[in-house]
Structure formats: C-alpha cells, structure tokens
Design goal:
The complex is a heterodimer. Chain A is of the alpha/beta class. Helices cover 21% and strands 29% of the residues of chain A. Chain A contains nine helices and 28 strands. By secondary structure, chain B is an alpha/beta fold. Helices cover 21% and strands 29% of the residues of chain B. Chain B is built from nine helices and 28 strands. In chain B, strand 11 and strand 12 form a beta hairpin. Chain B is globular, with a radius of gyration of 22 Å. Classes of the chains: A alpha/beta, B alpha/beta. At the A-B interface, strand 14, strand 15 and strand 16 of A face strand 16 and strand 17 of B.
Chain lengths: 370, 382
C-alpha cells in the first residue's frame, strides 16, 4: 500500500492566464495539442502508485470533471480514487477562496485517509517527478516540510511571480521571496510540498486562525524558523503556467524533440483522456515544419513552428506561425496568424492578419468568429 | 417489457496466411491499420456504436496479443453491466475433450453454452478482418421486420468482379433464393460481406445438426446457409452501401490504408458520430521536424517526421529521419526510416529499421513490397 495522500492544489492567486482562464482553470487548459495541463501532475501521482488523490477546483469545474472521470489514468478504478473537491460554500469574495479554506472544508477526507504522508502538488505546473523519491528524501532527512525547487538561470524571463527559496546549510530553507524578474539565477519553488498528514492538518488550522486570506504557502513561509523545512532539487524540464506568455512559451519550447523527450518518456508516460480522434490528414499543398500536431486535423495550409491542437482545420493559403492553436478551431483560407494563442472552436475567416509578438502573444477567444 | 437482445460473435481465429510475416506472431484481426487502429477495432467499434454490448471473440491462431488487447473492453465503451468483450478460445470439453475450431460454424457450435448463458434472441456473426462502418442495429430492424430466419449483409460489386465473392441470388423482395460461392458466371452482383444475423433458436438447432454431420466442413457459407435454403427457411439480403474492404492480402491492406489519404470521398474515419475506438498508447502528439516536407499523408500521434512524406500513411511511433523519402508507402508502428533512405510503394512492417540511405521499392512488380527485417538484411547484404 502506498503511504502518500496526493493533493492537487488550486492555482495560487497570482496566476492569471489572460483569456484562457475565463473558461476553465488553467490546469484544465489544453496543452501541447493533446493534453490538459493537469495531466502531468495526475500522471506523476498515479505513476508514483498513489491511490488516494484529492483534486481541488475553485470554479468552472466542467472541463476538469469531464476530463478526469473515466479510465484514462493508471489508477485502480475501485481501490484508487481521484476525488474532485471544492470549497463547497459561497465565498463572499474570491479572495476568500484560498487553498486553506478549501482544505478546511474538506478536512474530513484528509482525516479519513490512512496514508501518513501528504504530497501537495500544483496542478498548473508541468514537470515529471516520482513522489516516492520526494517522500524518501523527506523521511531520510528527518524534515518537517520538504519543498521541491528548481535552480534556474533564466529567472529574468521565466517563473515570474513564483516563490523563490533562500537555501542555507543542508538545503535548509531560511526564507521565501517572490521572483520579480530582477535576477538571473534563482531557486524557484515548484509549489510542491511533502509533510506528514498530521502537520498538514495542523498547518491548515493554524493558517485559518491567523487570517482568512492565508494560503498554505503563507503559513509555510511563516514557519521557517520553527520547523525543519528543506529543499529537494528537481532536475529536468519544469514550467509554471501562470500567464498567457508562460502558457505560450511552454507550448512552443516543447516543440523541440530534445526538450520534449526530457519531459515525456516511455518510462514515465503522461496519461490523458483519449478523444478517439482519427489521425491527421495532410492534404496536397500542406507545408508543415517544426511543429507539434494533434490528431484529427485537416491541414492544407502552412504551419511553421507552432502547436496545433486536435481537430483543427487549416485551409489553403492560411499561414500559422509561432502560434498555439487549441482544439477544434478553424483557420480559413489565406488567414495569417503569428505569435497568437487561438482558443477552442474559434473561426478565423474575415481577417487577413493576426499578429502578436513573442513577448506579448495575442489571444483569440473561445468560439470567437473573426 | 423486454429488450431485444443480440450478441455479436466475431470470428477472429484465422491465420491470414496471405499477410505473410505480418501474421507470423499476430492474429490477423490484431494487425495494425490506418495509423492508430487494429483491424478488429472496426467490428468492435461498430458493435459499440450500434448498441450491441455483448461481444464474443472467437480466437485460435496466435492469440496472445489479441486476447490481451480485447480484454480492455472499456476501450470501446463495452464495459457495461450485462455486456462486455469475451475472449472465446477452443477449450477442453467434458464430452469431447480438447478440440480446435474446425470451421466458422463449428466455432459458434462449440460456444453455444456461452450464447445460452447470454439468453440472447439474435446472434450477429462478424468477421475480424474487414474494414467498414456499419450500423448492425438497422440490420437487426430489417431482420425482425422481414421475419427472416437469417439476414445476410450484401454489397453490390461490379459484375466483372463478382466471381471473387460469395454471390446471393435474390427475388424481387431481396429474399435469397440461391447462394453461389465464387461463381464462374455470376447471376447477380450482390456479394456476401460475411455478416450474418440469425434468430438464435433456429440457428442453435441447425448448428447441433451440423455438428453431427461428418461430411460437413462446418462453415456458414458452405454448410449452414445451404441447409437453411434447402429447408426453405427465410433468408433475407440486407443491402449495405458504403465503404467495405477485406484486408486479406498485402496489396489490399496497402490499398485500404491508402484510401485514407483520399479524405471524405473514400474511407473516412473522422465522423464524430461513428468513431472508431482503439486502445490509446499515451504517445505524444505528432512531431513534425524543421526539415519535414509532407505532401498528402495520414499521420498519427507518436510519429516523428523530419524527412519527406508523399502520399503515405504513418502509424503510431514511426520515425522518418531527415532526408528520407517515403512515397506511396505505409509505415507501420515504430518502424524507423533512416536518413536519406528512399521508399516507394512499400508496406514497412512494425518495428523494422530501414538503415540510412537504403533504397527500397518493388521494381517492376505490380505488387507492393512488404519490408520486413529479413528484406532489409538481405538488401544490406548481411
């Protein structure tokens, strides 16, 4: 029996993926043409043989519920359980809808859990990790809390607004800060924590007693002097999808086969709900290069360095460059799209060009007709 | 109130010798098809889409892979109460001991106890090696409406090709009056598709009789249907319109795959109301590299393309390296086409590694070239 209760946390309040999150939490957004962002963290848990998974959603649950239910993940359909939880009460303002308030409302399910350890992981981060390694490291080091982090050298452009760690001797965490893009080298928190179930419960209680606006990360930051909090270094690909730019960048950088193979391998598969879509048809005149393409597309136009979601139609003469096209969109004849994120079911017809920039990609709304 | 119940039985035990190495270790119904599918996905998906939720699969030849594939009945949504996919291999019996399936009819006879257990009213007999989309529920409606004892799905074929098929000669109401297997001078162009609906009670009786008949070859076409006709039972032809192909040879398997690049006009698998379901293998989306040139192709997830692909179909996990040219070719699962290799009119078998620079084509032959590991080693002079 596995000794970990897995908790997939809400995205923190600083997360805002312009446009995309009007329709679903970022974690349920389409990613790389076939996945949803949260597939990575759920697969990490099921691949780590975690049987008891709590998945928190703030609001707009439809996409998440539809996606997660079924037999897509490698978890036993009786013994295993992915339980979808929310605050279950009307928060007078969204600022009160914190992870702590959500945990508190569902504490019964934590109490009932027989697993001694809790791993809290963010559902809007993309990385792969065996959580058993994290728990072993945590136990071997006699830590109260272990925080996963990544050492990065491009902190001026990536992981903006994410927590960073100050690390002392023996990887002891001595403080938390926020990455405001001022420095190149940072140890950024992957917002993934390991602790005992008992400590988790008491921290949640304590946080809610201090302030009803407190998040779990706040109470952990408060505890650096009282508890043994250590860092666990993650290696390999990691991304935090906390803005439209971050979403765009992560999609585009994973087009590179050498980057992608660092994230997804046969040894650690990423599961997702299959749509039973047929393969993609490239018609005469199609010109596609440097791209990731989902199934079910019909491509007659030009696609360069882009991510094309499932069931996308790209007509003759259309040019899609450095863009992310979400599933079931239609790019009509001769339309030119550059540096743009096109949401699901959008139809681009009566416009010659849509061009954003690499630093500020444009966003085309879900079901929009332009 | 009583629900009408029909159980499907898929004949999936044949060796498929005309597919040569493709069926050396794998039963024909488990052979890959159309990028991401296996042949048996077609009858299984048709069952699921027609609300036929109990499916027996009669396996015999090299069935390890097939058995484990069909065990995952949730793939086709058939994991429902009172339904499921049941693997039915030959077994040791109390009375007769261990015996193989002696023919298509015998395979059903040996599983009459399974059908009894299902308390079924109708039995749908299907073949595990045809590519088509068909609503069996409509066929059952016709069977009931016409009060038939058996209904046989037929396809109108050009008269010039009719001598390759089992031909049904019918009266003006599409009642079958005569059945001719591969007639030299066909009287009609209605070819049997090997899809039958039988009213179970009557079929049960005829199968029991056939079992005792030592002169019988225990075959539906050769023995059971003629016996029905001889006794004046009502056999009805059900006309099917649409795409249907038997993929029994390397050429027909290649051709049927090639029909996929013709789009909606030919074999179209994109209808959201009639999806063909298949076991998902969690592969990444298609990776189309910076040097890729793709002109008319059918490509699925897990493929990695950096070369030139023209009028071809690539199956899951196949790789076309930079500078390679793949023309009029079907590349099956996980096959690897090395840098600068040139393939024309080939069918590359699963897992075959075509080395850099190798050129393969069938030459003057009208047949396509089946590229196996042996073909590659021979060409490399090893």
């Amino acid at each position: 029996m596995n000794n970990i209760l897995g908790i997939l946390n809400l995205e923190s309040s600083s997360v805002h993926v312009e446009g995309i999150d009007n329709y679903r939490p970022v974690s349920a957004a389409s990613f790389l043409g076939r996945y949803r962002v949260l597939d990575f963290m759920i697969s990490n848990m099921t691949n780590s043989k975690i049987n008891n998974i709590h998945l928190y959603i703030k609001n707009r649950p439809r996409s998440t519920v539809e996606h997660v239910t079924g037999t897509s993940y490698n978890i036993n359909s009786k013994k295993g359980r992915i339980r979808i939880l929310n605050g279950e009460r009307n928060f007078s303002s969204d600022v009160y809808n914190t992870d702590v308030a959500n945990f508190l409302a569902n504490m019964q399910f934590v109490e009932e859990a027989t697993e001694p350890y809790v791993v809290i992981a963010p559902s809007h981060f993309v990385f792969v990790q065996n959580f058993n390694d994290l728990v072993k490291y945590h136990a071997d080091n006699g830590a109260d809390i272990t925080v996963m982090y990544q050492s990065i050298n491009n902190a001026k452009e990536s992981f903006i607004m994410c927590d960073t760690l100050e690390l002392g001797e023996g990887k002891q965490v001595t403080g938390f800060e926020q990455n405001r893009g001022k420095f190149k080298n940072r140890d950024v928190s992957l917002e993934c924590y390991c602790m005992s179930k008992a400590l988790f419960m008491s921290l949640v209680e304590k946080a809610s007693a201090i302030s009803s606006l407190y998040w779990l990360s706040d109470i952990i930051a408060d505890s650096v002097d009282d508890l043994k909090i250590i860092g666990y270094q993650h290696r390999g690909y990691a991304a935090c999808i906390n803005s439209l730019k971050a979403y765009y960048d992560a999609n585009l950088e994973l087009r590179d086969h050498n980057v992608l193979k660092n994230l997804i391998s046969n040894e650690w598969p990423i599961y997702t709900k299959t749509n039973d879509t047929c393969p993609t048809l490239y018609k005469e005149g199609a010109a596609v290069s440097g791209s990731l393409v989902g199934n079910g597309c019909i491509i007659e136009g030009t696609v360069i360095n882009s991510v094309i979601g499932r069931n996308v139609v790209i007509k003759k003469g259309a040019v899609v460059k450095d863009s992310v096209i979400l599933p079931s969109s239609l790019i009509n004849k001769d339309a030119v799209i550059e540096n743009t994120v096109v949401d699901r079911y959008a139809i681009v017809t009566h416009i010659k060009e849509i061009k954003g920039t690499k630093d500020k990609p444009l966003y085309v709304k879900r079901r929009d007709r332009i | 109130m009583k629900q009408k119940k029909m159980v499907a039985m898929i004949l999936a035990g044949g060796r498929g010798t005309r597919l040569y190495d493709l069926t050396k270790k794998v039963a024909k119904p488990a052979v890959h098809f159309g990028g991401k599918y296996r042949i048996i996905d077609f009858p299984l998906s048709n069952c699921a889409n027609s609300n036929v939720s109990t499916v027996g699969v009669l396996v015999q030849y090299e069935s390890v892979l097939l058995n484990s594939y069909i065990a995952r009945d949730y793939v086709w949504g058939l994991d429902v109460p009172n339904g499921g996919v049941f693997c039915l291999p030959p077994r040791e019996k109390d009375e007769s001991g261990l015996g193989l399936y002696r023919g298509t009819a015998d395979a059903i006879t040996q599983n009459l106890d399974f059908l009894d257990l299902q308390e079924t009213e109708y039995v749908l007999i299907l073949s595990g090696d045809h590519i088509y989309k068909m609503n069996y529920d409509k066929m059952l409606e016709s069977h009931i409406e016409k009060g038939a004892d058996a209904t046989i799905a037929v396809l109108e074929v050009p008269l010039s090709e009719a001598s390759r098929f089992g031909i049904m000669n019918c009266d003006e109401n599409d009642n079958i009056i005569e059945f001719e297997e591969k007639p030299k001078e066909p009287k009609s162009n209605l070819a049997s598709m090997g899809i039958y609906i039988f009213t179970y009670k009557t079929l049960r009786k005829y199968l029991r009789e056939d079992e005792k008949n030592n002169a019988s070859s225990h075959d539906f076409g050769k023995d059971i249907i003629p016996a029905y006709l001889k006794d004046g039972l009502k056999l009805s032809a059900y006309r099917f319109k649409g795409y249907w192909k038997d993929v029994g040879t390397i050429n027909s398997l290649w051709e049927t795959n090639m029909d996929l690049i013709k789009g909606r006009a030919s074999l179209d698998l994109s209808d959201p109301d009639w999806k063909i379901y298949t076991g998902d293998n969690n592969s990444v989306p298609q990776q189309i590299g910076p040097n890729a040139k793709i002109n008319t192709a059918y490509i699925t997830q897990g493929c990695l393309v950096d070369g030139e692909v023209t009028r071809s179909v690539l199956f899951t996990g196949s790789v076309v390296e930079e500078g390679a040219q793949v023309i009029d070719t079907v590349v099956m699962n996980d096959a690897h086409i090395g840098k600068g290799a040139v393939l024309k009119r080939c069918l590359v078998m699963d897992g075959v590694n075509v080395p850099d620079g190798m050129e393969l084509d069938p030459g003057d032959s009208k047949d396509v070239l089946l590229v196996t590991k042996a073909v590659v080693s021979k060409k490399a002079g090893k």
